[in-house]
Amino acid sequence: HSLSGHIRGQGVVNDQRVLRHRSVRFDDGFAACGRVSVCTDVFIAEGDSEDEIAWIDLAFAALPDGRTTVGFQCARLLHRAVVREVKGLFLPIPNDVHNGYRRLYRGEFGSKRSRGYPRHGQSMGTGGLWLSVDNRLGILGLYGGAELTLHQPAEPQVMIRSHTFYSHSRDVGGLLYADEICLGACAENPGLCEPGILFDIGFAIRAGVSARETRAWAQAGSQRVWPQGNQAAIRAVRVAGADGHSYLVMANFGEDPVTARFEPDEVDGSLAVDGQAPVRQEGDVCVIAVDPGAARVIRLND
Prior knowledge:
The chain is mainly beta. Helices cover about 5% and strands about 55% of the residues.
């Protein structure tokens, strides 16, 4: 479940099930939006049945610059429940035998050479919202957390499955180790939690970029933007693309269509590269229609 958040309940078996999904393809990119439920089952207590404990609204877009992706995640605990793990963003970075158990991370904190499988769990705040992995991958936190977190689990956690699912796959298939990049939440065994938002975040990831370029990208004005009025279901960010253009990426996590309104100087002359409804002028504002459970990609006229 890379880049879709991670929630683990009290049961041995935890999985995500798609409740809704919608996607569009366009030249050199795509935009997808959906919702998954988090279910937990196989409890120690005899007779306990499967429990749906959370929903996660997700959106993910590949920009037409060929190198940048943007994502949103909003996780809600549906009722009071024991939670054994909750992590926002959740980008696993393999750090095992195939890369010699070595990764180089750079960020506001400086640099760190990470040894895979340290045999004791540890988390490190990066002191900022950008992170470089091996001078090849850049990660930006856009909203929802004060800093990115680098988490190293106590033991390997990537399942190698000889079947679709084994709750005991550690025995039958073995595991590989991965570091985890998190934002908004990074907790193991938080215990009994009350219903409500677990994390609500936005992020961007770029391939083929150095640490210096990632830092410059973080300073290039990528940020959350707010449509006019009460638009609680809308998530929107402005992201600087690798092609010299800026993009507005939006998602509607609600159940009804939304017309997002912006000042003309924010989106005037912009192009809906996703092939959906164009940006239009209504009086002294520009409006963008976003269907329920849909994501949009708009190239801005910088």
